[in-house]
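Posting for a labmate who doesn't have an account.
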Amino acid sequence: MMSYLVIGLCIFLLLTVIIISIKPISMGIEARRDLKENLADKEDINEDIIDQDKSKLLNNDLSISGEIVKLNKLRKEGVLSEEEYIKAKNKLLD
């Protein structure tokens, strides 16, 4: 009789521990899932920022080349000397 009581008490304690531990385990699983989703969102944002930076650099390169074309036109018209043209061009490229 005593052994049945001990076995019953052990089973009761085991079930109690399982029931109590289910909530923290499910919270941990949910937190891990949220973390993965947040990391994926950050990667998307980082890719968007990189794309914007690339387009800014491309536009900047186009504007620099446009400025050099304008300087060359001024040099050909005689508004700028060869030395002034070279200085202005080097300043744009640096």
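Reply:
Got it, the structure tokens are right above this. Residues 23-93 form one domain.
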